[in-house]
């Protein structure tokens, strides 16, 4: 065996793999879109996700594989189907819990999957959305389990986000009921006995309007969510609140560079934390295809500088 040749080949492989500086996990977005945005949003990976003008949204990267999970819906926003795409492959339809509406994927700190699914047993007049957890089994998702009743209420729960410490942020319509378009934000904290401690986030973050779609930073340093509270740019806008020594800062609207006259929702981070993904939709019902957009996380810097250090009171 020519050991010098083997060593030479190994060196070339290692050099090429490292010189790009791209990890297949934390920078997996490079396999889908190399046109990186600055502080002005761009459409993310349109040729991969929506080659036929599909209505796409609610995107997140798998932290283990770098695959991208997202939803495809239509002009009426129903049904909604979860898809997965790997670099170089076509999108794959996933049917994990519901055959009519499922999506809003989020990955747990131990790399399992939580999704939102609607099950109405064929009765379109009576439905609710619940959060389900699925276990990873190689490339498959198995054992879908409805999350406990302390999290899922008789109304609807939507779109979740996990911090690295296991704290679980989600939106619930438990106060006014499903279809009221009146979510509030909660955090579920894991206890030593395996149960969850549920806390409603403070007034200021929650309002008398629809506050939903939380994105919690991995270290809980900031929270991004969407809301239709008065004073916004459009129908539903993205807001940010920062954790201070005295609690959460007053939420700030991310402004007209991010928010439009329509809906901005479903904030998520790339795995390296350098970019913010979010979904844009023109209206609840629209013939204009929705988009997944992305923007540099640097867009948050001026808002962090303005954040009040006094915090807002807990309930």
Describe, in short, the structure shown.
The protein has 315 residues and is mainly beta. It has 3 helices and 21 strands. It has a single domain, classed as 6 Propeller (Neuraminidase).
How would the blueprint of this fold be written?
Layout: H1 3-19, E1 42-43, H2 46-49, E2 55-61, E3 68-73, E4 81-85, E5 92-94, E6 101-107, E7 113-118, E8 129-137, E9 140-146, E10 157-162, E11 168-172, E12 184-190, E13 196-200, E14 211-216, E15 222-227, E16 237-244, E17 247-248, E18 252-253, E19 263-269, E20 275-281, E21 291-296, H3 301-306
Antiparallel strand pairs: 1-21, 2-3, 3-4, 4-5, 6-7, 7-8, 8-9, 10-11, 11-12, 12-13, 14-15, 15-16, 16-17, 16-18, 19-20, 20-21
Describe the structure.
The strands form five sheets. Strands 14, 15, 16, 17 and 18 form a five-stranded antiparallel beta sheet that branches. A four-stranded antiparallel beta sheet has the order 1-21-20-19, with no helix packed on it. Strands 2-3-4-5 form a four-stranded antiparallel beta sheet, with no helix packed on it. It has helices at 3-19, 46-49, 301-306; strands at residues 42-43, 55-61, 68-73, 81-85, 92-94, 101-107, 113-118, 129-137, 140-146, 157-162, 168-172, 184-190, 196-200, 211-216, 222-227, 237-244, 247-248, 252-253, 263-269, 275-281, 291-296. It has 315 residues and is mostly beta strands. Residues 5-24 have low confidence and may be disordered. It is built from three helices and 21 strands. Strand 2 and strand 3 (68-73) form a beta hairpin. The chain has a single domain, classed as Neuraminidase (6 Propeller), CATH 2.120.10.
């Amino acid at each position: 065996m020519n050991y010098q040749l083997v060593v030479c080949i190994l060196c070339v492989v290692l050099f090429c793999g490292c010189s790009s500086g791209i990890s297949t996990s934390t920078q997996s977005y490079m396999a889908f879109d190399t046109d990186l945005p600055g502080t002005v949003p761009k459409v993310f990976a349109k040729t991969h996700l929506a080659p036929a003008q599909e209505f796409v949204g609610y995107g997140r990267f798998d932290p283990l594989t770098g695959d991208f999970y997202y939803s495809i819906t239509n002009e009426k926003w129903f049904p909604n189907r979860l898809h997965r795409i790997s670099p170089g492959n076509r999108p794959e339809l996933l049917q994990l819990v519901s055959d009519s509406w499922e999506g809003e994927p989020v990955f747990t700190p131990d790399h399992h999957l939580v999704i939102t699914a609607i099950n109405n047993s064929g009765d379109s007049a009576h439905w609710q959305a619940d959060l389900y957890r699925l276990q990873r089994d190689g490339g498959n998702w198995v054992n879908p389990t409805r999350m406990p009743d302390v999290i899922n209420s008789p109304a609807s729960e939507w779109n979740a986000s996990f911090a690295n410490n296991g704290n679980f942020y989600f939106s619930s319509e438990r106060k006014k009921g499903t279809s009221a378009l009146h979510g509030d934000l909660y955090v579920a904290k894991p206890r030593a006995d395996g149960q969850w401690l549920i806390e409603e986030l403070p007034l200021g973050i929650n309002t008398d309007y629809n506050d939903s779609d939380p994105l919690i930073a991995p270290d809980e340093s900031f929270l991004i969510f969407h809301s239709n509270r008065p004073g916004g740019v459009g129908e539903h806008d993205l807001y940010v609140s920062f954790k201070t020594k005295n609690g959460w800062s007053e939420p700030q609207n991310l402004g007209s560079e991010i928010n439009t006259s329509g809906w901005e929702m479903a904030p998520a981070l790339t795995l390296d934390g350098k970019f913010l993904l979010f979904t844009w939709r023109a209206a609840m019902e629209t013939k204009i295809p929705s988009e997944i957009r992305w923007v540099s996380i640097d867009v948050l810097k001026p808002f962090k500088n303005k954040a009040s250090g006094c915090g807002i009171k807990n309930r």
